[in-house]
């Protein structure tokens, strides 16, 4: 026990720090995963609180893991870790048993793991923390009080500072399908090794007031229109496929007429695209920088588009700005918030490939990239 305790303490502490740091790279990702749980549990009223809950939970993982390694207030920390892990085990167990989730979000999008793997991980982690709980009196601080306090305070600040940075300037490590260098049309294609679901056509009929289902190859022997009344038909999955979803889903741009303009935008030699899920970040904070970027792009005959989930509001907002003629497109909000982890985010595209993307706080980087682009032919700006 005496030798095992430091080893278990080291493993558990590092695991919590690692888990927290991966999620700190993208707090919004955990926030959206929380919303999936709340939506499933009919608790959507809590969705507006998921971001701050995400930030606090991520910070706690980092802080608790560091506290365990440092040996800071072990009675309190081990109790909190035990309660947190039991709660996580319940969530991952639910995610696995319900079959409603493909990824639990435990290690963010950079290290996706299945609900089953996560559930097993949490069971093992709970056992390890129970071991530490029983042997908590054996855990001693690594340093003296002053050093421990100073290091611990620095880690607390760092755990929130990392998240502040990624929420304002985009994740440091982009693990999503919209990362720099990816071609959006290619990411919309099904993977080459995709295995589709196997389905059979299933018919639903009524017979003598009772509802009956049967497949196309198993019609009842007494079937005829006088006895059976058609209700509906559907495709029943008899074997699930695998890897049968494209990396990018739901990315479809619609203009004012409702026509799909996705191909037109992504086929432009160059394009600048503003993604704004909504206008919760006041336009006054970024309109001047965007006006300079807009002017620089137009001077190079490079089209500039705005993509939002709030078309009517966007029309009102842009009408008062120096670029009222910007072409607006609407898109599914899930696609937008996946593409834009900061609201708004600017993309610089080359024939659909993401050359660069920046938070609204760093629009000048896109403008500087435009300076190296030659003036395009007039055909290049036709929407």
List the helices and strands and how they pair.
Elements: H1 4-24, H2 27-40, H3 50-70, H4 74-98, H5 115-134, H6 145-169, H7 184-187, E1 198-207, E2 210-215, E3 228-239, H8 262-266, E4 271-276, H9 287-299, E5 304-308, H10 311-319, E6 327-330, H11 333-339, E7 345-350, E8 353-359, H12 363-371
Parallel strand pairs: 4-5, 5-6
Antiparallel strand pairs: 1-2, 1-3, 4-7, 7-8
Helix pairs in contact: 1-3, 1-5, 2-3, 3-6, 4-5, 9-12
User: Which quaternary structure do these chains form?
Assistant: single chain
Main sheet: strand order: 6-5-4-7-8
List the helices and strands in order: HHHHHHHEEEHEHEHEHEEH
Beta content comes to 5-15%
Q: Unreliable stretches, pLDDT < 50, 5 or more residues?
A: none
Terminal CA distance:
70 Å
Helix count, DSSP H or I runs of 4 or more residues? 12
Share of helix among residues? 40-55%
Q: Kindly provide the radius of gyration, computed on alpha-carbon positions and rounded to a whole number of angstroms.
A: 26 Å
**Structural classification:** alpha/beta
Mean pLDDT: 90
**Major sheet characteristics:** 5 strands, mixed
Global geometry: flat
Number of strands: 8
How many domain modules?
3
